[in-house]
Amino acid sequence: MTLATIPPPPGQLITLGPLSIHYYGVLIGIGALLGIAVGRRRWAALGGDPDLVDRVGFVAVLAGLLGGRTGYVLTHLSSFADRPWAALFLWEGGLAIFGGLTVGILVGLWQARRLGMPVPAAVDSIIPGVALAQAIGRWGNYFNQELYGTPTDLPWALEVDPSRRVEPYTEFATFHPTFLYESLLNLVLFGVLLWLGTRRRLRQGSLMLAYLAGYGFIRFSVELLRTDTTFRILGLSRNNWIALAVFLGGLVGLWWWQRHGPDRPIGTPLDALGDAAEPADGDPAPVAGDAAAAADASVGADDGDPKTTAGGDDVHSSTTPAGP
Length: 324
What we know:
- The chain is mostly helical.
- It is built from nine helices and seven strands, in the order βββαααααββααββαα.
- The chain has one domain.
- The protein has a three-stranded mixed β-sheet, with no helix packed on it.
- β2 and β3 form a beta hairpin.
- The chain is globular, with a radius of gyration of 22 Å.
- The C terminus is likely disordered.
């Protein structure tokens, strides 16, 4: 017997006269804005120009939405056979998170380098906000009544309207709220990344790899409960296998980066860097947000100046960018 449940949402949208506002899009937008705000604060704490984070975040979010939607459509072509134009209806739901992350992160890295931002420092500043944005955006699945888990009668079970239940679970009324599980776990990941950013034992640029390992683990775990994927290999869904690869890739990448990444710890101020990135057009780039420091950015490994060490090769240790 279920003692308590999470009720179904009141609907998918708010109607204001001729205007329809979809909760799904609103939550994605709020998540993106808060994620960028975190990146701005962290980048400014390193001495950078926070407006550069806006420019990176804008193109990364757009690219991520395009990549996520493209990935979803390509793996659900039958759903668009009668309405191919619906592939543009982002508010109806349907984003392949791994497609969005891949395209969004790659485009964000490209934009950061093009703007002359030292990429490892930029990554450490921006990537925690991605986990926060995901935690908020996942609530869009609640309002769309999608991507829930297997039936359960736990006190926090989610009620799903009969028209939104999937085979073979149409006779059940309550399900695991996997959107809530992933949202809460992403908040935990956000906190862990911030905590790692207050440590100085991981090398600069490590937080993206820590994020990939953390999110891969989260998604693999939650995916075991999901009911929306029928295509399986050895009992695991396509997303399970991708999440496992992301998790292992993040761990291996973090191990490698601790041995071959920049010889400085997370949180190193920009004016202390001696190897600022160059934009894609090949023009020499100043240290972002500090034009004066750019003039002295020629410090190299062969000029005899001492370098800051990253705290050894302890891949299990923690990290930190210089701002919350």
